[in-house]
Design goal:
The complex is a heterodimer of chains A (about 120) and B (about 110). Chain A is mainly β. Helix content of chain A is about 0%, strand content about 50%. Chain A has no helices and twelve strands. In chain A, strand 7 and strand 8 form a beta hairpin. The chains are: A mainly beta (about 120), B mainly beta (about 110).
Chain lengths: ~120, ~110
């Protein structure tokens, strides 16, 4: 089946430093999936951070970026300079381009930004 | 605009007891989803509806879990006889229309089965 792998359960970064959260995917049943990053801030519900539906394209939101790399089957999340308010849990996810309703999530990466 | 609301926020049960979770999606959203999220895992889709129709419930443990959305608005997820393995957070989400990319999530109901 389709799956998403996030290798880091927790990442700790000092404020103003750069960040990368790794995400790789396996889409055995579909060609090129839609790719997403969702985020859950403390005390809030899960919300969409960014999406990319075309291979090779980059998505961006709130200073975060992720590039859809179909050769490496990766969709890493990056930010040049993190802020304490970025502390949250980040989930990489995919859906079938022919059925966008069925979303498969990774296990999540908890980001802690130190002041 | 109000977000997705869920109740209760927490539930603690003994094995064998029944529990129901209630979800009110964003007004006008025709697609509704229920997810199960065990601790330290990502959300896993259980069932989803388009209006009042169940589109896919293949991931529901059907012998004990059931979900309805009778009027195409609010939804209820019920566990008939809870097991310790059901301990998880149950998330409800909705999307504006069938095929929309973005899902809007509620705060979840945290279930503990003792």
């Amino acid at each position: 089946g389709d799956s998403v792998t996030q290798t880091e359960g927790q990442v700790t970064v000092s404020e103003s430093k750069s960040l990368i959260i790794n995400c790789t995917y396996s889409a055995t049943s579909i060609g090129y999936p839609n790719l997403f990053w969702y985020v859950r801030y403390p005390g809030e519900g899960l919300q969409l951070l960014l999406k990319v539906i075309t291979a090779g394209q980059k998505g961006s939101s709130r200073g975060f970026e992720a590039t859809y790399n179909k050769e490496a089957t990766s969709f890493h999340l990056q930010k040049a300079s993190v802020q304490e308010s970025d502390s949250a849990v980040y989930y990489c996810a995919l859906s079938d381009s022919s059925n966008t309703n069925k979303v498969v999530f990774g296990t999540g990466t908890r980001l802690q930004v130190l002041p | 605009e109000a977000g997705v609301t869920q109740s209760p926020r927490y539930a603690v049960l003994q094995e064998g007891q029944a529990v129901s979770f209630w979800c009110d999606p964003i007004s006008g959203h025709d697609t509704l989803y229920w997810y199960q999220q065990p601790r330290d895992q990502g959300p896993q889709l259980l069932v989803y509806f388009r209006d009042e129709a169940v589109i896919d419930n293949s991931q529901l443990p059907s012998d004990r879990f059931s979900a309805v959305r009778p009027k195409g608005t609010n939804s209820t997820l019920k566990i008939q006889s809870a097991k310790q393995g059901d301990t998880a957070t149950y998330l409800c989400a909705s999307s504006l229309y069938w095929g929309a990319y973005e899902q809007y999530f509620g705060p979840g109901t945290r279930l503990t089965v003792l």
